[in-house]
């Protein structure tokens, strides 16, 4: 009878455990689905606010990581890499690409690999790694052949065609014969128009391809044709107000008017582009526009304004060069190049396995030897550890009781028991007192629900504070936060 009762309790515990985990997973999945729906809607409708988009994408990353939902994590990595590329943050972009390649290769996700390599190729081209840029593009084409979904393959093909056009020109988008460039871009635009209307990326891709074609058409001095493209883009943007695409169209209009020697309209377009780029924190586009608007003022003999924008461009150029010198881009690029060049090879795996086995045998023999030598010294050390552990346990019990009874007294007593804890966190991570108090509760292994009760807060506000602290400390996940706090004494 006694054994039967034990079995019943054990079975109940197992059911409770799985029910809790199932509930947690379902809750995470609901949040992930909700954020994914918001991101998809922003692509379908075009109303992409850069700040809101980055927040949603970051939330998707951490929620997917906690729920071990790899597709969501991969989606967020691609989106983050794309945003970092647009804003000129090369190192952050490369780090995300590197992380995404590892994860995508582990799942043979060729579509994600293709998406990441397209961003990587554009970044390499911007950083003047021309040879590596072409190699990344060739690898991307290889991956796209392995993509099973025809819609995804077609979408990748469009961006591959645009990339093929870009590697034919110099940093200013020019070459002696622009015909091959225009041919690739016209083909990409035609393919974009054939995408299914139900494809959430269709509107964005159509406008993006047309803008790329319009830019090259302008540089080929076909200004009349380029202007007709920008009119069509205006018509499309009226119902799809994407900020990045609106900005790019303003720049194309400004460049077209410059070539046509209509300098006042050019200045108007470019001034609006600078304002919009600054509002979206797209400083790389600001850097692109400064020399264009400076040249326009120079042609109007307004040398004061021309000099001002020329100086601004020089200042930004110096800043970008300084950041480039401090950058870790070359190391990250070498690392990524090795990853995308890797093919399945079992010889290194076998060698690695043999080395691990030999190290394990050697380690075991050393362990046996050291164990016999330290047996006589072990007992005093164990006694000391036990005394220390008992004291820590007593202190922990006292703090737990205080947190439940009076949270303010808990904070005071915690600082007495862990005098260096607050100071270390404040100096290293610049956290405020509310953040430090929250970290103290986390160190005591209180769950989020308990912290909400003790601090008389909502569960959502507590989760928000944890998320903000993770961002302030520049950590990847809550697990990293718990590990760091547990090590602080």
Report on this model:
The protein has helices spanning 2-45, 50-66, 70-86, 90-106, 110-126, 130-145, 150-166, 179-193, 202-219, 223-237, 243-259, 263-279, 283-299, 303-326, 329-341, 346-405, 407-417, 419-429, 433-443, 448-454, 459-472, 478-487. Among the domains are: 344-393; 406-489, 3-Layer(aba) Sandwich (Rossmann fold), CATH 3.40.50.2300. It is built from 22 helices and no strands. It is mostly helical. Residues 16-25, 344-351 and 378-389 have low confidence and may be disordered. The two termini are 48 Å apart.
In short, what is this structure?
Helix content is 83%, strand content 0%.
Please supply descriptive tags for the structure shown above:
single chain, 489 residues, mainly alpha, Rossmann fold
Q: What do the pLDDT scores average to?
A: 82
Give the uncertain stretches in residue-range form.
Answer: 16-25, 344-351, 378-389
DSSP summary, beta strand count? 0
| Fourth-tier CATH superfamily name of the domain at 406-489 | Response regulator
Supply the CATH architecture of the domain at 406-489.
3-Layer(aba) Sandwich
Q: Topology of this structure?
A:
Layout (H helix, E strand, L loop, with lengths): L1 H44 L4 H17 L3 H17 L3 H17 L3 H17 L3 H16 L4 H17 L12 H15 L8 H18 L3 H15 L5 H17 L3 H17 L3 H17 L3 H24 L2 H13 L4 H60 L1 H11 L1 H11 L3 H11 L4 H7 L4 H14 L5 H10 L2
Helix pairs in contact: 1-2, 2-3, 3-4, 3-5, 4-5, 4-15, 5-6, 5-7, 6-7, 7-8, 8-9, 9-10, 9-11, 10-11, 11-12, 11-13, 12-13, 13-14, 16-17, 17-18, 18-19, 20-21
């Amino acid at each position: 009878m006694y054994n039967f009762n034990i079995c019943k309790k054990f079975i109940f515990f197992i059911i409770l455990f799985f029910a809790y985990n199932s509930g947690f997973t379902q809750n995470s999945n609901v949040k992930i689905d909700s954020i994914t729906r918001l991101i998809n809607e922003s692509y379908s409708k075009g109303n992409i606010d850069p700040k809101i988009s980055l927040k949603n994408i970051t939330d998707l990353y951490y929620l997917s990581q906690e729920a071990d939902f790899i597709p969501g994590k991969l989606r967020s990595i691609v989106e983050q890499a794309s945003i970092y590329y647009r804003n000129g943050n090369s190192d952050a972009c490369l780090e995300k690409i590197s992380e995404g390649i590892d994860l995508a290769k582990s799942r043979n996700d060729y579509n994600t690999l293709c998406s990441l390599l397209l961003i990587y190729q554009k970044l390499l081209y911007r950083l003047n790694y021309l040879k590596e840029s072409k190699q990344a593009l060739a690898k991307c084409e290889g991956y796209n052949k392995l993509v099973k979904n025809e819609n995804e393959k077609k979408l990748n093909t469009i961006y591959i065609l645009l990339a093929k056009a870009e590697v034919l020109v110099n940093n200013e988008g020019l070459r002696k014969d622009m015909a091959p460039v225009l041919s690739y871009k016209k083909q990409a635009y035609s393919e974009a128009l054939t995408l299914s209307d139900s494809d959430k990326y269709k509107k964005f891709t159509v406008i993006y391809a047309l803008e790329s074609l319009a830019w090259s058409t302008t540089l080929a001095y076909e200004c009349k044709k380029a202007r007709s493209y920008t009119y069509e883009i205006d018509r499309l943007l009226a119902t799809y107000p994407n900020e990045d695409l609106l900005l790019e169209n303003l720049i194309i209009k400004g460049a077209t008017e410059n070539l046509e020697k209509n300098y006042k309209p050019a200045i108007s377009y470019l001034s609006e582009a600078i304002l919009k780029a600054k509002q979206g924190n797209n400083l790389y586009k600001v850097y692109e526009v400064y020399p264009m608007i400076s040249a326009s003022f120079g042609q109007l003999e307004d040398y004061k304004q021309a000099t001002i924008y020329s100086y601004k461009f020089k200042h930004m150029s110096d800043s970008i060069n300084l950041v480039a010198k401090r950058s870790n881009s070359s190391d990250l690029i070498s690392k990524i190049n090795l990853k995308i060049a890797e093919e399945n090879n079992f010889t290194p795996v076998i060698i690695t396995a043999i080395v691990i086995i030999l190290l394990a045998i050697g380690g075991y023999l050393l362990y046996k030897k050291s164990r016999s030598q330290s047996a006589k010294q072990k007992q005093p050390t164990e006694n000391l550890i036990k005394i220390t552990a008992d004291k820590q346990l007593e202190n922990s019990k006292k703090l737990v009781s205080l947190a439940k009874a009076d949270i303010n007294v808990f904070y005071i007593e915690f600082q007495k028991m862990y005098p260096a804890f607050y100071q270390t966190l404040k100096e290293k991570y610049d956290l405020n007192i509310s953040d430090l108090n929250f970290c103290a509760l986390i160190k005591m292994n209180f769950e989020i629900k308990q912290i909400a009760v003790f601090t008389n807060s909502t569960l959502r506000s507590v989760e928000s504070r944890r998320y903000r602290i993770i961002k302030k400390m520049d950590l990847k996940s809550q697990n990293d936060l718990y590990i760091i706090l547990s090590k602080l004494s």
